[in-house]
Design goal:
The protein has 184 residues and is of the alpha+beta class. It has helices spanning 15-25, 57-66, 96-108, 129-140, 164-176; strands at residues 2-10, 30-37, 43-51, 70-75, 81-92, 112-116, 120-127, 144-149, 153-156. 23% of the residues are buried. A hairpin with a 3-residue loop joins strand 6 and strand 7 (120-127). The protein is elongated, with a radius of gyration of 20 Å.
Length: 184
């Protein structure tokens, strides 16, 4: 079973390299890694997916928390969360019937047609990994020419962690003043 970790990190050069180096040194395999800015300036969020059968996610979280620039690490696997992925899929169009079928598939899965040429179509879809896997399998008969997926992004549902933003603010202030973010 895949485990989903959320690492809140300082948005500064070298953070991604330190995280990737940790995974390399400890021989952890990353199933998926996405990084993006958050609502707070100077703070980024990493969504890291590891295979829980081959990797102890709690050890990964402990090791991540020790890294400089890591503010907080949470394993959200067992919490109610929204998990999404984004894919761009370029499909071959052989004839007008195939074009119609591809458009119907895109419409059925609420995907967007982002490019249409005489011989290819490009579809963008966001949703659960299972939904994207289903779309990929459905389009495979038409000939997938190229595909890219972002990897999982996740957010815990509800407002149960209302004190988290204060904690992140305090730790960022401490970090900006030259302190170690994992020590308080």
């Amino acid at each position: 079973m895949n485990r989903t970790l959320i690492a809140t990190v300082a948005d500064c050069p070298g953070v991604l390299n330190r995280v990737a180096s940790l995974f390399r040194r400890r021989a952890y395999n990353i199933e998926s890694l996405t990084v993006g800015h958050t609502e707070q300036q100077g703070v980024s969020r990493m969504t890291i997916v590891v295979d829980g059968r081959n990797t102890d996610a709690s050890k990964v979280a402990q090791n991540l928390a020790k890294l400089i620039d890591v503010i907080r690490v949470d394993d959200i696997t067992d919490r109610p969360a929204i998990l999404h992925d984004l894919a761009l899929i370029k499909v071959q169009i052989r004839d007008s019937a195939a074009r119609s079928e591809i458009l119907r598939i895109a419409d059925n899965f609420q995907a967007r047609l982002v490019d249409m040429c005489p011989t290819t179509a490009m579809i963008e879809i966001a949703g659960s990994e299972r939904t994207i896997d289903t779309v990929v399998e459905t389009l495979r008969v038409h000939g997938i020419l190229e595909m890219v997926r972002t990897g999982r992004v996740a957010m815990v549902r509800g407002t149960e962690e209302s004190n988290d933003s204060q904690s992140v603010d305090a730790r960022m202030t401490h970090w900006n003043e030259g302190g170690s973010p994992w020590h308080g």
